């Protein structure tokens, strides 16, 4: 049994492997004419110098390029994550107690907070990390750290997400830190989620990637079978997460295992699904973050969209 911090659940359900090869689509293509993401305000970000933004834009509003001679600007997924993360850091003020998220997107936000502290632009910040990995990163940047015992209410948390639906419900935890993330982000006055547009889905589980459930190691096969049977009608497949290096079970910061659930169909009532999962005695927590996000920041080919609850 070994801990592998870089092991992520990236294997899609067999029924949706072909869908992942489809071209990337933008916000207005996912939710045309709906009240989902199209209600978010569109901001011009520094890495998008060619965009013109109207005073009251929606994602259905055409964005024009002032000069046809300028080539379109194409950013990598990691660059899009950085754009969204830096936008989220604008919410941080001196004197705040912050929840520091985990993952590739949150890492950019933590790096930026550390930079602003060194420059003196932020002062008297206290961070509460959501994982051992983030704890080590924050220490290396000189960010003062504490815990929930000392600060049971946080001013703000910034973190990424693996999926975001039109109602700002999330799937998180494909990096393995879902329990600590939910504990910390559940007691924040404001929870800002930062993603690139590839994380937007019509319903949770819609990407075909894993919805993680943290469980106790004791009789893990029994718990996995119970979870799969629970969602049999929506084509659920339950798999123990393992380390790619040695095939051993992935072990969380809390000493637990993770069962990754893959769904062929929409889960339907998410609150009912949440309650059903948590009624299993071997379950510690699941990766659905329902009604928790207060702001979602999405970076994409058309700029940065900020949606508030």
Automatic annotation (TrEMBL):
<dbReference type="InterPro" id="IPR037171">
    <property type="entry name" value="NagB/RpiA_transferase-like"/>
</dbReference>
<comment type="function">
    <text>Catalyzes the reversible conversion of ribose-5-phosphate to ribulose 5-phosphate.</text>
</comment>
<keyword id="KW-0413">Isomerase</keyword>
<keyword id="KW-0007">Acetylation</keyword>
<comment type="pathway">
    <text>Carbohydrate degradation; pentose phosphate pathway; D-ribose 5-phosphate from D-ribulose 5-phosphate (non-oxidative stage): step 1/1.</text>
</comment>
<comment type="similarity">
    <text>Belongs to the ribose 5-phosphate isomerase family.</text>
</comment>
<protein>
    <recommendedName>
        <fullName>ribose-5-phosphate isomerase</fullName>
        <ecNumber>5.3.1.6</ecNumber>
    </recommendedName>
</protein>
<dbReference type="InterPro" id="IPR004788">
    <property type="entry name" value="Ribose5P_isomerase_type_A"/>
</dbReference>
<dbReference type="InterPro" id="IPR050262">
    <property type="entry name" value="Ribose-5P_isomerase"/>
</dbReference>
<dbReference type="GO" id="GO:0009052">
    <property type="term" value="P:pentose-phosphate shunt, non-oxidative branch"/>
</dbReference>
<dbReference type="Pfam" id="PF06026">
    <property type="entry name" value="Rib_5-P_isom_A"/>
</dbReference>
<dbReference type="GO" id="GO:0005737">
    <property type="term" value="C:cytoplasm"/>
</dbReference>
<dbReference type="InterPro" id="IPR020672">
    <property type="entry name" value="Ribose5P_isomerase_typA_subgr"/>
</dbReference>
<dbReference type="GO" id="GO:0004751">
    <property type="term" value="F:ribose-5-phosphate isomerase activity"/>
</dbReference>
<keyword id="KW-0597">Phosphoprotein</keyword>
């Amino acid at each position: 049994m070994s801990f592998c911090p870089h092991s992520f659940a990236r294997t899609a359900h067999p029924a949706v492997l072909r869908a992942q090869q489809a071209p990337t689509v933008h916000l207005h293509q996912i939710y045309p004419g709906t009240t989902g993401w199209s209600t978010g305000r569109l901001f011009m970000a520094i890495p998008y110098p060619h965009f013109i933004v109207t005073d009251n834009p929606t994602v259905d509003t055409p964005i024009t390029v002032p000069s046809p001679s300028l080539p379109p600007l194409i950013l990598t997924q990691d660059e899009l994550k950085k754009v969204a993360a830096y936008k989220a850091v604008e919410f941080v003020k001196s004197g705040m107690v912050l929840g520091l998220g985990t993952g590739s997107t949150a890492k950019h936000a933590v790096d930026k907070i550390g930079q602003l502290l060194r420059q003196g632009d932020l002062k008297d910040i206290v961070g509460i990390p959501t994982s051992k990995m983030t704890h080590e990163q924050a220490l290396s940047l000189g960010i003062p750290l504490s815990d929930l015992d000392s600060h049971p209410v946080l001013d703000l948390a910034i973190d990424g997400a693996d999926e975001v639906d039109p109602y700002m419900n999330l799937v998180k935890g494909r990096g393995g830190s879902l329990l600590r993330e939910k504990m910390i982000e559940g007691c924040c006055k404001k929870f800002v989620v930062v993603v690139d547009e590839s994380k937007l889905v019509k319903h949770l589980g819609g990407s075909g990637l894993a919805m993680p459930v943290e469980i106790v190691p004791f009789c893990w096969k029994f718990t996995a079978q119970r979870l799969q049977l629970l969602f049999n009608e929506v084509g659920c497949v339950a798999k123990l997460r393992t380390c790619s290096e040695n095939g051993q079970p992935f072990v969380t910061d809390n000493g637990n295992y993770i069962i990754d659930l893959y769904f062929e169909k929409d889960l339907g009532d998410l609150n009912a699904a949440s309650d059903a999962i948590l009624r299993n005695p071997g379950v510690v927590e699941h990766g659905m973050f329902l009604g928790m996000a207060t702001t979602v920041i999405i970076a994409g080919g058309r700029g940065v969209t900020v949606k508030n609850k």
